[in-house]
Amino acid sequence: MIRTATLLDIAAITLLKQKMFKEVGMEHLLREDFVNAVEKTYKKLYETGKAIHFVIEHESDIVACAGAFIKEDIPYCFYKEEQYGFIGDVYVEPLFRNQGYAKKLTNEVLDWFPKKKSIPSVY
Fold first, then answer.
1. Do residues 87 and 106 lie in contact, with contact meaning Cβ atoms separated by under 8 Å?
2. How far is it, in rounded angstroms, from Cα 75 to Cα 34?
3. Could you tell me the end-to-end alpha-carbon distance of the chain, in angstroms, rounded to an integer?
4. Tag placement on the chain: N or C end, fewer CB within 10 Å?
């Protein structure tokens, strides 16, 4: 069953994100303080309503996730609609792949975006 992640889930989501980079051979690009930096950033984004993750658990462990992020960077910060939605952190543990989890989670993300139109801009 899909559920919305909480602040308490950020550590597990960060580990899945790290696994994703490792699987594609890109772990060497990550900062030394990657885990702390991601956790701190995600906590702030959750608290301001600019990010959310949807997760699927198996026996109390998060085995799949997908994130939704509201961004306001260039060039969008100059548009009438300054914000845009960004999908990230789509990851499924290898043992749970080919069950449609990524698609289901991504659909949750896509359903979430229209609800976030009223977030104030930081610019």
1. yes
2. 27
3. 38
4. N
pLDDT digits (tens, 9 = 90+) for 2-44: 999 999 999 999 999 999 999 999 999 999 999 999 999 999 9
Orientation angle between helical segments 34-47 and 10-23, nearest 10 degrees: 130
Taking the whole predicted model, whether its pTM rises above 0.85 is answered as yes
- Cα–Cα distance measured from residue 72 to residue 39, given in angstroms and rounded to the nearest whole number: 20
> 9, 38 in Cβ contact below 8 A?
no
Relative to beta strand 51-58, strand 2-4 is antiparallel
Q: Is 44 helix (H, G, I), strand (E, B) or coil?
A: helix
Here the tokens at position 117 are 């139109």
Q: How many helices (H) and strands (E) does the chain have?
A: 3, 4
Rounded Cα distance between 1 and 93, Å, is 15
